[in-house]
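hey so i finaly got around to running the thing on ABC transporter permease from Thermus scotoductus. pasting the sequence first so u can double check i didnt mess up the copy paste, my clipboard has been acting weird all day
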Amino acid sequence: MIPYLLRRLVEALPTLFLVSVVVFFLTRILPGDPVRLLLGEEPDPKVAEEVRRSLGLDRPLLVQYASWLWNLFQGDLGRSIKDGTPVARLILEKLPTTLELATLAMLVALAIGLPSGVVAAVRRGTWLDGLVTSTSLMGVSVPNFFLGIMLIYLFSLRLGWVPPSGYVELWIDPKRNLLLMVLPAVTLGTALAGAIARFTRNSLLEVLSQDYIRTAKAKGVSSAAVVLKHGLRNAAIPIVTVLGLQLGGLLGGAVVTEQIFSIPGFGRLVVDAVFTRDFTVLQGVVLTSALAVFVVNTAVDVLYALIDPRIRYR
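ok and heres what it spat out for the 3d tokens, dont ask me to read them lol
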């Protein structure tokens, strides 16, 4: 297993390098001058030139990239153009919030999608199957921003069950933290629940048609044991794959949801960096998101071997 993980790490280095190249030069294409955003629309030319020189923005792009990459190899993601805060500190401050949101969304998705997919597979062709299939399709199709607004209107403004927006750290006030995170987690988890339900149904249907399942039924094994012990475990690999891909997307793609519910996570950090043309922050966030996707995908590969003993990494 260790040689396999080392090989995956070596294989990931070119990908991360390409991500760094793309994100560095694409951020420079964004319209707008960060110096003008810092000093105003009509700054003093001498002051603007001095600020540009202090930020290193007066050097050629290739020189800027080489300098940033060299600092990156030393563990330095640079400093925010906006206020000089180290980018690593900003990421460490925002990452736990996004991790919490992604974890809660994943739990919501599993709690809804997994049982629904099992029921749809076991009751194939019945009204339950049709209900799960149509509902999962609706969950995948509804945009996050629309669902989030509707949830705020119904459960916050109309019923008053939960606060509409905001964020409190979990270790400061656990109860209020969970109340504030319920609606964002449901918003993000709904689409994922639809995908999990569909993959669970299709994968489980394929497994339930195998000969060993019919043999287990002929030996008198209960239907619940056949489905949960023999069927679901063997159908788990496609489900785990979807979970891994979606979790990587949740870590870097919760921009809209965090904006709607005023959650200070990665999404808010990206939006603020784009509006202020804070290149170094944007580069650090995108690179960290790419690294998170790599870590999640590697963890999914390791889970394959734990789920299916026939899989071995040499």
